Amino acid sequence: MQVEKFYYDNRIVKQFAFATILWGVVGMLAGLLIAVQIYLPAANFGLPFTTFGRVRPVHTNAVIFAFVGNGMFMGVYYSLQRLCKARMFNDTLSKIHFWGWQLIIVLAAVTLLAGYTSGKEYAELEWPIDILIALIWIVFGINMFGTIIKRREKHLYVAIWFFIATWITVTMLHVVNSFELPFSWLKSYSFYAGVQDALVQWWYGHNAVAFFLTTPYLGIMYYFLPKAANRPVYSYRLSIIHFWALIFLYIWAGPHHLLYTALPDWAQSLGTVFSIMLIAPSWGGMLNGLFTLRGAWDKVREDPILKFMVVAITCYGMSTFEGPMLSIKSVNAITHFTDWTIAHVHVGALGWNGFLTFSILYWLIPRIYNTPLYSKKLATNHFWIGTIGIILYTIPMYWAGFTQALMWKQFTAEGTLKFQFLETVTHIIPMYITRSIGGVLYLSGVFIMVYNIYKTVKAGSLVADEAAEAPALESQAQEAHTEKHNKLYWHRWIEARPIQMLLFSLVAVAIGGILELVPTFLIKSNIPTIAAVKPYTPLELQGRDIYIREGCYLCHSQMVRPFRDEVARYGEYSKAGEFVYDHPFQWGSKRTGPDLARVGGKYPDSWHFNHMQDPQSMSPGSIMPSYTWLYENKIDTAITPAKIRAMITLGVPYAKGYDLQANADLIEQAKKIQTGLKAEKLEAGTNTEILALIAYLQRVGTDIKNAPKPTVAALTN
Amino acid sequence: MSVIIILLLASISVAALFLVAFLWSVKTGQYDDEMSPPMRMLLDSVPAKEISDPAKVESL
Fold this sequence. Notes:
The complex is a heterodimer of chains A (about 725) and B (about 60).
Chain A: E1 3-9, H1 11-39, H2 52-84, H3 91-113, H4 127-149, H5 158-177, E2 180-182, E3 188-190, H6 194-229, H7 236-250, H8 265-277, H9 279-292, H10 297-302, H11 304-326, H12 329-335, H13 339-368, H14 376-408, H15 421-427, H16 429-459, E4 465-471, H17 476-495, H18 498-524, H19 538-549, H20 564-570, H21 605-613, H22 615-618, H23 640-649, H24 658-679, H25 689-699, H26 712-716
Antiparallel strand pairs in A: 1-4, 2-3
Chain B: H1 3-27, H2 36-40, H3 48-51, H4 54-59
């Protein structure tokens, strides 16, 4: 057997490792800033790009795609080479992948802070960046599959399967959810509207958690945990079974993010059923991880790396138990829109992703630098500070979520709501403060790690190309021959059977046809089922885009669920037919502020004018930041025609040629609001953004009030 | 709700792809041996002459 000598590329692993640390610190700092802003609105600094609504997407995107993303690539590039006994397929592709991904992150941070957002959570990046992500992701794919093809180890270790599933599914999710119609170099409208947009978004959103935060990290766990503990995985068969079960189930669970919304009931139930089934494969993975340490718990006592891994896997188990529970409708009725969800995701993010990443960094950096870790003690301190941080973060958030939900639902003996919305917010502010202390502790731990790794790197020197030896795959040539033969065989089999040939052609054509037809279906189904629902006026449309730009949807939902308390507090529950012109939908997922689905006409224009300038003047104790720049910025009227044209393309029924008329209507409506404000001695500048925002807020949820009441005959039909 | 068609198509085609991958992996004997792969991954393919240096092995 001929032994081949080759070298593992450690430089690319090092680069991804350092990027992981850098973006981890950046993402967590952004998180800490917004955590403080929640109880200290002044920490928004009165600047647009430091305000909660713009920093929050920077936090989520940085932590998911920059911190965990680079962490995933670090783990994949290290383990894949060793599992395949081959260097990465192509060094240039590795470099393009690394630098391309960092470029995406920088562009993302800049555009998000500047207010360019698609308005869909965790998919906020605008269309040029979406295209760049797709390209770099394909580079990663070629590099990964290239390595797998030229491997020297026939068996694909289970971790590789997790990486393959990650790549395939993320590709699909990203392409489908990023379907958008650009109307300028940096802005676009979602191709889907209302309920449809919501369904696509949460199908994506849930699977982003599944296939970006979970499957690649499970793959990484299956490599690094046995390595760190120096013992084989508890049950290899279980790892295979839970892998295949997990990927077949995960994709259907998305609708559990939309329970009790205007999404059709059957779709909600589908999401619930699959979410509950998911507990089996998820716990299969967790138990397999923990049982791997069976008989090695004495090592855990000594080794901070294993400590991190144990807590990471335990947190994975907790959040995958909690996920199915939160997917049960009666539980979701309480937890949804509250801080419970925030606690849930942070058990996953801080515990599972964060701690697993730290453990791998501590394990891997000394190895590629050929030196022991600078200080085991500091790593242990990091572990304890981080763990206390997680506890101080999550417990207050669970408490806050549960408390607030119960307060929202509380009625007096007379049958009126017991608490104002604001009272339920001010009540949980101590919990918000404790949460941010937890965050500080967690971040302090990270800084300890940065120091420890800096010292380790200083003491060692990078083994950029690590030598390894392995025999070439036996009888490779012969295999290639059989494969060729098989291909010929299949083709002949089809050719010799005209009926099969016809069927295959039909399938091929059908796929093409469906791809062409579906967009038409989408537009057709936008024909309103509620006749009173009309497209937004140009000013309202501009106002809506400001609402999206400032990230209002991150604190305010627009979805009244059919519960007694919500109908009493906000008004009639939301109907699917109300959102047919909403590109993108703005239902939101969190109520840090009250729901806005029925805010139109609730307050006079002057209230909104004063409130946006100084929220505390209208609602004392409010934690909303002020939006002073809206009073100076002029509406970008140059873009109005392009926006209207884009909406017409998406099937919104503006009259033909309305794009040319739109600005005249916009100015007229703005003037009307301006005059109304003047009557109340409030000076608004001509065509300022605040006028557009007021116009939009006054329109939200009002169309349905103009609908004729259904007659008895209509109901019985 | 016609968007469900897109989602179903996308989800089912990915599921079909995974199914093909699964059948391939079973047919080509990927799972015939469940004992040695988890053991083998623990061993690093360090070149023979470096293994002879005990100090080196200790550091790994």
